[in-house]
Amino acid sequence: MDAEELLKRYAGKQRDFKGAQLSGVDLKGANLSGIDLQDANLSGADLSQATLKNANLIRANFSRASLIEGNLIEVQGNANFNWADLSGADLSRAKLSGADFSNAKLDNANLSDTELSLVSLIKASLKETNFKRANLKNSKLTGANLTGAELSQVKLTSANLKDVNLQKAKLRGVNLSGLNLSGVNLDEADLSAADLTGTKFEKSLSQKD
Fold it and tell me: How many of the other CB atoms lie within 10 Å of CB of 169?
């Protein structure tokens, strides 16, 4: 299916596009609110500035897709965003448990109040990203760059933070108890009111080193 066909069907009130083959399509700026993309393939597609609010993204494939400044508010599903570009995108209040953001770019994106338990953010670029009040329990953040990220009130229980860059990140009031922060860059990070009970800092970089 090409972009023209999808937009024609969507304009005709169709919302069910389960399993659609849409790799590489140009849907830049399209309004696709409430669309059902379960099991759809949008790898390499251009969805920059598109609106996918309330979309069903269960098992959808967005690998290497462009979703720059996209509206993904309240989307849901364990989608594959491997190597995708979501810079400046709004994913607030989304439910994305189990989604794969490995190597994805989410600089300046809004993930506040988002459900991100069990997600993979391995080697993702998350500079200045807003994670305020997000749930990152059991997530994998190995090697991710969270320079300047907003992580206040984030839930990080059992998260893997190995080799994460948290330079200048805001971790106010975050429960870091029992987490292994070995090798983590905490230079100029704001840890005010954070719970550091039993936290391991071996080989961590901080302003006090």
Answer: 29
Q: How many CA atoms lie within 13 A of 98 on its CB side?
A: 8
> Where do the H-state alpha helices sit in the chain?
3-11
Q: Which H/E stretch holds residue 180?
A: none
Which three-class secondary structure state does DSSP give residue 90?
strand
Q: Residues 59, 77: contact at Cβ < 8 Å?
A: yes
CB contact at 8 A, 18 and 39: yes
Count the neighbouring beta carbons within 10 Å of the beta carbon of residue 23. 15
Q: Which amino acid is at 63?
A: S
- Is the pTM higher than 0.90? yes
Convert the pLDDT of each residue in 140-176 to its tens digit. 999 999 999 999 999 999 999 989 999 999 999 999 8
Note whether 130 and 112 are within 8 A (CB).
Answer: yes
CB-CB contact of 83 with 101 (8 Å): no
**Token representation of residue 165:** 């860059």
